[in-house]
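Hey, can you fold this one?
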Amino acid sequence: MFDYLYEWIQNIAFYLVLVTAVLHAVPNKAYKKYVRFFTGLVLILMIITPVLRLFGTEAEVMDLYEYIDEMKAVQMETEKEDIGVEEIQIEW
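Sure. Predicted structure:
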């Protein structure tokens, strides 16, 4: 139990050091807000992961993410097919 907690804290500490280095390497201040937003989302996921494991909902969240990914792919494919149909109709 304590090994897992130690590893979790160690991962968060390493991530924060890495984020700090990336923020100092970003050349433009306009990009910093986007980098902070993205890294903040990743940090939230890193912090929530043990809680999700505790309740056993980690697999459900991953399944939901995969389902959303599949739906986006289907939607993109449908949009591509619709565009192809419109192009064919314009040519006639």
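The chain has a mean pLDDT of 80. Let me know if you want another pass with a different chain boundary.
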